[in-house]
Amino acid sequence: MSARQGGKLRAGLIGLGAMGRNHARVLSGLDGVELVGIVDPAGDQSGLLRAPVLPDLGELLALGIDYAVVACPTALHEQVGLELAAHGVPALIEKPIAQSVEAATRLVEAFESRGLVAGVGHIERYNPALQNLRIRLEAGELGEVYQVVTRRQGPFPHRIADVGVVMDLATHDIDLTSWVTGQEYVSVSARTVSRSGRLHEDMVAVVGQLSDGTMVNHLVNWLSPLKERSTVITGDRGCFVADTLTADLTFYANGAIGTEWEALRAFRGVAEGDMVRYAIPKREPLLVEHERFRDAVEGKESDIVTLRQGLRTVQVAAGLLASATDGTVVAVAPGHHEETAAAR
User: Fold this and answer.
1) 3 — pLDDT class (breaks 50, 70, 90)
2) Can you list the domains of the chain with their CATH numbers?
3) Where are the alpha helices (DSSP H) in the chain?
């Protein structure tokens, strides 16, 4: 239970891998928060951490914490999350929320039944380019949306051992697509391959459809020396291109210039128009994610990724794996629609 005495929120961290170290860095400097303990059986390999590194979750809970960040391997999310919920501790759980729909459902029920604040670390929602893009889509700047295409590729991260590219990387694209457009997936089709000699898939190609008819394509792999993080949304007024590696957002407008060239005069498609690259503030997405979750724990209205939204993403990802296995188009059952801002 909490040992807070009207001062800073007392936070704990579970897991000190590559992502866990980033969480430790942000938590160590987060306004209104004190990182009081970290759980990792391997200890502090860097020797740079100010908070004590503990061997098990029980010792962290004994310190008294107001909330925890779960950054251990995905296979351990359910076990750790259920123990935190049982002790009444709010939690920010790294994505994916769990490695199966069943485990994710148990986590949702554990935290919701106790009325605890809980979120999922789908960090792309806090990328400045995608935040700005969502605002522009909501304002109708693109008109009707026709297609969302994402490409997420790069070298294999050796830290990942318990899930394949669908649950690890593609869940980013599933969540951001649904969030940016405000639409749910209704069907998916996928093909996967494994070329690196690992148990899990390391490349996936996805075709999907959203509830408003928008076409979706995702290309995700761990097999490319080119690191790419691209989201392209095409509509009846042009297309937006978001590069989430650089947090750049560019708009390519449909042209409205007439032509006297007879061969082109009968063309009824679009033409190239103006290109605008937006100047947007570029705050670190992980810091923004932590600020939002801190505010939610304090009872303020805050836009976090709820566990139920995280469950929905895992359901869609499971649909991709089922499609790849069976060679079929998989219908995704309707989820419980909710506004992200309603999570407090």
Assistant:
1) very low
2) 9-124+288-302 (3.40.50.720), 125-284+311-342 (3.30.360.10)
3) 18-28, 57-63, 77-86, 101-113, 128-138, 165, 171-181, 262-265, 285-297, 307-326
